[in-house]
Amino acid sequence: MSRVFLYARVSTFNQFTENQLQEVKAAGFDVQPSRVVEETVSGSIPTKERVGFQKLLERMESSDVLIVTKLDRLGRNAMDVRSTVEYLADNGIRVHCLALGGVDLTSAAGKMTMQVLSAVAEFERDLLIERTQSGLRRAKAEGKKLGRPAANDTTEAVQRLKVQNKTQAQVASELNLGIATVKRHWNK
To answer: Which of 2, 11, 62, 63 is catalytic?
Structure first.
């Protein structure tokens, strides 16, 4: 008999998972409270690095079902989401996404959906890279200086205290800087 689990994730502590729980109930799934894993963690953190998701994986077995309300609950990175769904499928766990019509992402139709979503995500990433590179080329052609601005004031302050025979630690303390910052400006 399949057990049904729910993974409900929010990104910040001022957000709540209650809406996700209500969506699952409204979709007709009866998930036992002990099989609901709620987590507050950024979607940019890979699932393999999330404490709650790892605890969920420890509890799930082959033939179980994992429900998420939206694909972005698993992650923002399409490649991470895809690898997570593939890992679950390889372990006999079906993944249902309510926002995609409740489709089982491990089924043939679900795999096709995942491939389309991955292709779109890759396309968007490539467009972003193209736009960024184009903008950098344009800025360079216009003579704009790229990169981090020079910290001349910091260099001058560090050099002034260095001439007074102060140690790097003393300079860091006096200027309220990190030691690495002082070291970077020490021999300029």
So the answer is: 11
The CATH architecture one would assign to domain 4-117 is: 3-Layer(aba) Sandwich (3.40)
Residue 11 annotated in active site:
yes
For 52-83, what is each residue's pLDDT tens digit?
999 999 999 999 999 999 988 998 888 888 88
Give the separation between CA 136 and CA 90, rounded to whole angstroms. 43
Count of other CB atoms within 10 angstroms of residue 91: 14
pLDDT, tens digit, 9 for 90 and up, residues 27-39: 998 899 999 999 9
Please, what sign has the CA dihedral across residues 36, 39, 43, 47? negative
Whole-model pTM over 0.85: no
Q: What is the CB-side half-sphere exposure of residue 12 using CA atoms within 13 A?
A: 2
Q: How far is CA 159 from CA 18, 164, 173, 180, in A?
A: 56, 9, 14, 15
Kindly list the domain boundaries of the chain, sorted by start residue.
4-117, 152-186
65-68 and 103-104: which strand pairing?
unpaired
SS3 for 87? helix
> What is the H or E stretch that residue 131 is in?
helix 108-141
